Amino acid sequence: MTQDSLRYISAASGRLTTLDAAASREGEEGTVHERIVAALPSAAQVVCVAVQPLYDRAGRVAAQELLFRPAPGALTAGEGFDDDMATARVLSAVTTEFDPHVLAGDAPLFVNLPRRFLTGELPVPLDPENTVLEVLERVEPDEDVRAGIEALRDEGFRIALDDVVPGDRRAVLLPLADVVKVDLRDCPPEGLPAMVAWLRMSCGRPVQLVAERIETAEDLALATAAGFDLFQGYHLRRPSVVERSSLSHSSTTALRLLAQLADPSAGWARIADLVAADPAISLKVLRACNSAAGARRRVRTLHQAVVLLGHARLRSMLVLELVAGTGHGDDDLALRCLARVTAAERLVPQDARTAATEEVVRLVSELLGQTREQVEEVFGHGEPGPDVRAACDALDAYLVAEGGEAPVPADPRFTALGVSSAYLAALAHAHELLATGEGGPAGDHLGSSVARPVAASA
After folding, report:
1. Rounded-to-integer distance, Cα 306 and Cα 313, Å
2. pTM for this structure?
3. What is the pLDDT of residues 308-329, one digit of tens each?
4. Domains by residue range for the chain, with CATH
């Protein structure tokens, strides 16, 4: 990735905590659970996206457009967000937070794309069969853009040109367009029929024409009489914002994962370990796999979800998260999360992957401030077996103990000494993995990470 991209990546500021320091603070700063949440006040965040319908001539919803909103109460995209960041947040939301079928049903989704997404420098991990990609009006129609659009069309995406005006410099792209959008403010009412005729002739093939900025009943009547096919604007419906609670990812962990994905010798076990170090990334991986936009099958363990998602989709997810600029740099949180997950695996070696996923579910529940049942709806993990539940309960009891002496677990199979030994060994493993997984500078790992991946299928 270029230096321009790297300015979006949050700088990592946290240092890994040593075993001695972690142990010495056990009774001084509250419970481990409390310190995990207190260490990252911004871990819980609200993710949102706006949706505005497009209507056909019969007044039926024909499509939904996704729009960036910086906060749930925002009425517009606001200022201070460039096109790449805004698009990355929308794509991240629709691929890891919201099910596109819930947002739009069977109708296609319109998504705005700036230049670097069009040229393939940044990924577009959407379903081509149900997505229309809008070329923003600020995009210069040079050869790289044209080649990128042709590549996207070859993948099955439909292309829309946004805010086309008479004499538009992007007229050279009209033969590649499946949809053309016209803002009624950019064309006088008496010129609309001629505009429609020019667009249909310039495209040279069947094309859908969208009249935007339908503010009044008169606007709708004029656009209908002029021959437009689809209509969008406040008179029909204003954008509605959908939101959900989520978690902020660790930028440093995301970079480590990209480094591992670029290493041919890195196995799935190591990659799954690093995913487990970050509850936000774990949550997004499981959401993606357990949604209609993902693998279209329920997965029960984090390791299974990582393998099923695959290198290309995981890489795209991480790149979008970094470009979106919503990460944090707290490495101590990653250390503690990975230690908890690894300790659960050590306590139940006969069902290690289920134990790891159960501990991730509990971590996400704590960080989101939600019940396990609420989190379970997302994970699809199911109630664990008695061995896994007892082991995780014993680990939780050990971690929340105040003072220097851990309580005796209710299950005699998991003694205080056994749980303590498992956790300290897991903490050492987490230390080693996170220390050796950093690799070189961020740019070394991202250069090959942003090429457009082929859309993964189930």
Report:
1. 10
2. 0.78
3. 889 999 999 999 999 988 787 7
4. 3-43+248-446 (1.10.3210), 47-243 (3.20.20.450)
